[in-house]
Description:
This protein has three domains: 219 residues, no CATH class; 105 residues, Roll (Pdz3 Domain); 83 residues, Pdz3 Domain (Roll). By secondary structure, it is an alpha+beta fold. A hairpin with a 2-residue loop joins strand 15 and strand 16. The chain contains 13 helices and 18 strands.
Amino acid sequence: MLLSILKVLGILLEVVLLFNLLIVVHELGHFLAARWRGLKVEKFAIWFGKPLWSKTIGGVEYRLGSIPAGGFVAIPQLAPMEAIEGKTDEKGEVLPAARPLDKIIVAIAGPAASLGLAFLFACIVWIIGRPVSQAETTNVIGYVVEGGPAAKAGLKGGDRILAVNGHPVTRITGMGRMGDSVAWNIAVTAAPVIPVRFERNGKEQIVEVEPVAEERHGWSRKPLRQIQVIPAMTPMVARVFPNSPAAEAGLQRGDLVLEANGTKLLSQPALAEILSATKGAPVNLVIRRGTSEFPVTITPRVPVGEKQPRIGIQWDERGIITLIHPDPFTQIKSSLLTMWETISAVTDRHSDVSVQQLSGPVGIMRIYYLLFQSPMGWQLAFWFSVVLNVNLAVMNLLPFPVLDGGHILLALIEWLCGHPIHQKTLEVVQTTFAMLLIGTMLYISFFDVSDLVAGRKSALSPAGKAVETMTFTPAPGAAPAKP
């Protein structure tokens, strides 16, 4: 129990440190540019909220806040930011107006720093590799949900989807990344019926599918429409329970289950259907371990406290993992295209993708937490940090006051007009957009918290407990087999 708590605390510490590194580097870009251009810097704050620590050095107040999510640099000559940063203590000081060029340089320095950090992380990913699951790279259907849209349209396991609504696809799952996934093209298409081109036995066919969205529960995010298919993925053993039929047959972690009763397996649900249909009768499996393949016969048994016969395996949901080494420029380009497509989808009134599908600080830290739980957590976290830093740079360059792009826009207007924007007007504009930004972040964070609550309930569900506590009584006279 103590080890589990320490592990969770360790992961949380990693999440907080990495997430805040991204924010601090962004704000450090503004800070260094402001000092270089001679602008007044009042505060450099890591985290928000009531200061836990504060020290003034060289006229700059450095502080550590009590809310571990973000930070800011207070530069009064750039624009009034009291709505977010709080009132300044130096009300009496009259500062000279900053030149528009200086404002633009300081504003753009933050996104530039984020892109620089993204490039650094991308170099690391290039060297250590990015883990990619089998499901992320295939457009072959592994399983079709019974009674779902794809099943009604006649799609089957083994079909290779080639295009959705005329857009070529190379994978089934995933969002963005140049619109090459089935899921993404379904989400951004408003038509009630969508043509899907696929290949079966070497022949191309087209069917019309009517996507559906799962039922919305409580205050959760609005589900995106789906055609309810699972990508092809060879079932991989993650854990073998003691005294189970699988353990007695000699199965081990990392084994791949290629066939069951003569049927080639393209997904774990397909294997579950075969096992369920046998009703406890022996099942003939073909196992791959390393480079060798061998047959195994397993007779399912009912675990203690259950009614359904099982073979005693917990499956690896990721399937086969490979390492790819994309160069930094490819990673940055892919992230930029993904961000552009996301913004386009959110602003398209015909798309299912809306603001509530985005993630705020809570959601981002939750993603980091889930990534760090993986055996290749740091490799995944470095890759995600590339995407996140690019997103941070692009989002901040949007031409809305409060954001860096807004500062650039206001500086350009000042430059064209030949005089500073009236202070009162600037305060009203900045405060209005600050309130809108805060409201949007609270709205997104509400759904982030809902995801946390839903995930917690799922972890505590009876089904979840059954997987963790599945126990078997040894078969009479059974001894572990040695394939």
